């Protein structure tokens, strides 16, 4: 366990109170979850069977409309927020329940998946207590956990006078650009809220997420002097582009390693001609064994836990890139994607409420998950603005793969924990007085 996580665990132990018994209202919430489980699973099956790959704009909106109908029936006011046509993104569902009791909450999810209609072989397939299908765990399962937690509160008439915003984004798997438009509603919603809860897939029943890494792309372009291979290393020709790229990548590997930081070259092409396709994921190249190559292009990924770590690493990468071998030059470009969700004491305090809920339900301790094992997520766009907790969604696995699945046996427990967390946060003044 990292030093950061060890510190967070000590904070939790220091401020976690002894177990509380469930109140009368909380028992009503739990009973409602039990009564609605068959309905909850049927709803999940329905939305999983609607293809909502990020580029399937109609499919993404169709899933959003299923959630809109259910939220509006509970007294929420919902609107579909379109994105500009040139962004080629479907938009988001933004729902609001107005009130003034307790903490103001922002609940986050996403309704797109990585599975586009072309090549998708199947939808929902249930095998006993496991259900396979696109988005079962990432993250229609988490969206369903959120929805049915709210339904349980509504059944018990405990949503009254609470302010809860629900934002289901339609492009989490491939964030629309520019970010100030695609994530503008999220930022504005965060500024109206006290705490954000995200229902991304759970990382294990005994864990939740108080911090997760951000992500950035990088593009390295290396130039050399094309010449006959017999003249390589001469003063007139130098080392060539491929040797220079190898030097740079080796120094990245050798000099940048530190906790929670990764920097992976994912695509590399080199030779005398290199053409990178518009999508950035494919390239065509040519060359001969008796020619010194003049061009190398490398596209990579950078993951970081804080903005300070990101900027410090970028500065070191630029320094390495500029220390060229003879006869070569290189430049590196960075492309921002997801910011980091840095660990904060406020996030840990939200986790302590969740941990207490879990204990009171007899479901055991909940600890902070190692952020070095998590990638980027939507919540990071607003995590520096308000306290936040992630990883509250469905338990499953195989995300982004044909064998993606959800464990149906844990859904009721996840819904109960989410519902009681929302309930206690919206009554936080009462909790503080106990």
In short:
The chain is of the alpha+beta class. It has helices spanning 3-15, 24-35, 37-48, 57-72, 140-155, 179-182, 184-191, 241-255, 307-321, 345-360, 411-425, 428-433; strands at 77-81, 92-97, 101-110, 125-127, 130-132, 162-169, 195-198, 207-208, 214-223, 227-228, 262-271, 273-276, 283-286, 291-292, 295-304, 329-338, 367-368, 387-389, 396-397, 405-407. It has twelve helices and 20 strands.
What do these coordinates show?
- This protein is of the alpha+beta class and 434 residues long.
- The protein has 2 domains: 3-212 and 341-433, Zn peptidases (Aminopeptidase, 3-Layer(aba) Sandwich); 214-338, Alpha-Beta Plaits (2-Layer Sandwich), CATH 3.30.70.360.
- It is 34% helix and 24% strand.
- It has 12 helices and 20 strands.
- It has helices spanning 3-15, 24-35, 37-48, 57-72, 140-155, 179-182, 184-191, 241-255, 307-321, 345-360, 411-425, 428-433; strands spanning 77-81, 92-97, 101-110, 125-127, 130-132, 162-169, 195-198, 207-208, 214-223, 227-228, 262-271, 273-276, 283-286, 291-292, 295-304, 329-338, 367-368, 387-389, 396-397, 405-407.
- The strands form 6 sheets. It has a 6-stranded mixed sheet, sandwiched between helices. It has a 4-stranded antiparallel sheet with strand order 4-5-20-19, with no helix packed on it.
- Strand 4 and strand 5 form a beta hairpin.
- Helix 3 packs antiparallel against helix 5 and helix 5 packs across helix 11.
- The longest helix has 16 residues, at 57-72.
- The two termini are 33 Å apart.
- The relative contact order is 0.19.
- Residues 11-19 and 430-434 have low confidence and may be disordered.
